[in-house]
Amino acid sequence: MSKKAFVKSYGCQMNAYDAARMADVLAEQGFSATDDVAEADVVVLNTCHIREKAAEKVYSELGRLRVLKAARRAAGHDTRIVVAGCVAQAEGPEIFARAPTVDVVVGPQSYHRLPELLARSHETRARDTDFPVEDKFDHLPARRTAGISAFLTVQEGCDKFCAFCVVPYTRGAEVSRSVAAVVAEAGTLAAGGVREIGLVGQNVNAYHGLGPDGRPASLADLIRAVARVPGIARIRYTTSHPNDMGDDLIAAHAEVPALMPCLHLPVQSGSDRVLAAMNRRHTGDAYRRIIERVRSSRPDIALSSDFIVGFPGETDAEFDATMRLVADIGFEAAYSFKYSPRPGTPAAERTDAVPAAVMDARLQALQGLLDAQRHAYQRAAVGQVVAVLVEKAGRRPGQVAGKTPHLLAVQFDAPMSRIGQVVPVRIVEAGTNSLFGEAIGTAVAA
Ligand code: 5AD
Ligand code: SF4
After folding, report:
1. Domains observed in the chain
2. pTM, entire model
3. What is the pLDDT of residue 432?
């Protein structure tokens, strides 16, 4: 019987990418992937440190794994428990102290060393949270994945140091991969059947990797290069910072057909004082102007954003400024969070915390407005004909599921042979999280 690996990822798309790559590393070692943790010889938790709740989830999961590991041991099976990702990076020694069941702790920059860490863990608990001199991308096996839509990390780390954020500490300084490396990986993915690539980075639009002419290339240059990879029909990118929204990236939205009409551009707050306290280095109006430029390039662009309510010192009037910004701009989708102090960040030193009840009320109000906008956007799709990239089987037998260019999920009746194709679909109904439609005509190329 082959050895099995269970890999679970929390948090952002970069973590999803890292989890897929760890699965590749383990596959090379003879581990096949399983969704059933009870039969896994290696369990990897790829953790997120962005908010306290996310980090605490790891410890409750580890409690369950301790029981499972003991049961498997009683049945004569060894289980290696690996904690990877940003909690591993930030709290390595503490994880060993709090969770005796953990065998390996490995950070986001060193998981290519997983095989040697697993081997070493039979003698002593093994930890590697270095920022190694070698580049993990040079040491990872070829991608084996995976489906129709795949993430591809092009840039890691962040030099922005927003006052609330742990990323500059857990993921380190900004580093971009070369255009050639990204194009080569995109080619491997396309050869394996991938049609859509999500270029990911903590600050993806700050991308400045080495271009073919020996000079730094921008994200727009990179998108144009990936668009030339045969088989790649759709390109997306996330997450962007407002201050790195260059003219060439905005122009690419009008000029590159494969670049999908979506922009995830976190604003965090609509109040200039709060934005300054967060060290975001832009104002609410500057953000509005960027959106105007983007919309004049691509009028139908679907905007999404991240928001934090209850940053220390945030007043009612300042929160109202966030509500106004949301009402003015109109977002198709959004993530909103209560502020959570993170160890080591400047904001965690502040003593003017917003009371929990006030934070709750603000989050509820903001999410109410954002939900209403999202539902209105979904309802507006009813009656339209949209190009759906079919990704997988649908919820019901006979159905397939896919996404529109604007990233709306659609279910419709079609044979599984449609997977990987772009199919024109008329939307007939909007559900809560999905649209329902009917295929019209035959598949088109993009
Ligand atoms: N508290 C709450 N939300 C946070 N985020 C980042 N750090 C914190 C924090 N300390 C949110 C931001 C960011 C998203 C990925 O997570 O909105 O854009
Ligand atoms: Fe964190 Fe700000 Fe960097 Fe985003 S831009 S990763 S919020 S420090």
Report:
1. 3-128 (3.40.50.12160), 145-260 (3.30.750.210), 294-380 (3.30.750.200), 385-439 (2.40.50.140)
2. 0.93
3. 84
